[in-house]
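pls ignore typos typing on phone
S-adenosylmethionine + seq
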Amino acid sequence: MPKVKILSSVAGYDLSAADYDKKEKYLNSFEKNKIWLLLGYLSGKKILDAGTGTGRLAVEMSKNGAEVTALDVSSEMLKQLSRKSNKIKTMIGDAECLPFDKEIFDLVTAAFLIVHFKDPSRFFDEAYRVLKDGGRLLVTNINQKEPPEIKTKQGVIKIESFYHRPEKIREILQSLAFTIEKEIIVKEGENWINQIIVAKK
Ligand SMILES: C[S@@+](CC[C@H](N)C(=O)[O-])C[C@H]1O[C@@H](n2cnc3c(N)ncnc32)[C@H](O)[C@@H]1O
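k done
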């Protein structure tokens, strides 16, 4: 049996970017369209989509009139996004060290991003810094104990990821002075599969 390589986000997503959008249905199944209920009116809002990937959220938010900046560590994922929209500003960068001044965004979104952080505090702290007073962070936390196997041209890989308990995510956000405004725990039967939080600065 060939060994499954565990790669960093940059290496893993660069390698699998071309096929990422085929997973859209799978990703949506963890959200069950609930994100859109929480986002509200977007027209004219300045939004940072952190860990934007191929722009699954960014493209829709832009179509709804938001001014979207899409940031990701993977240049190949951003290339896929750029094929879909020329209205979105893309940036290669690290969500744990955001290349922006403080207090410039109305909303920071992060879907399926924190699963790649051992400790999401650094990203939350950075999101807090770049949000305007009263701005909001929308973050999702997938229940994923083992990263899925991904077939690539260079063999089967997994991308490094970490499991976070929902109560831990709540605790961290509150300790950083966010107020949790809304929370949806998406369930399948008895089990939670995704936590979606809107937290206000
Ligand atoms: C599972 S994908 C989610 C993409 C998109 N948000 C979505 O919901 O489809 C995770 C994305 O986070 C990016 N990522 C991982 N670590 C990052 C970091 N430190 N800073 C910015 N992006 C990161 C990956 O490159 C990848 O594109």
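The pocket of S-adenosylmethionine is lined by residues 9, 13, 27, 50-53, 56-57, 71-74, 77, 94-96, 111-113, 116 (CB under 6 Å). Helices lie at 9-16, 24-31, 34-39, 56-63, 75-84, 121-130, 166-175. more later
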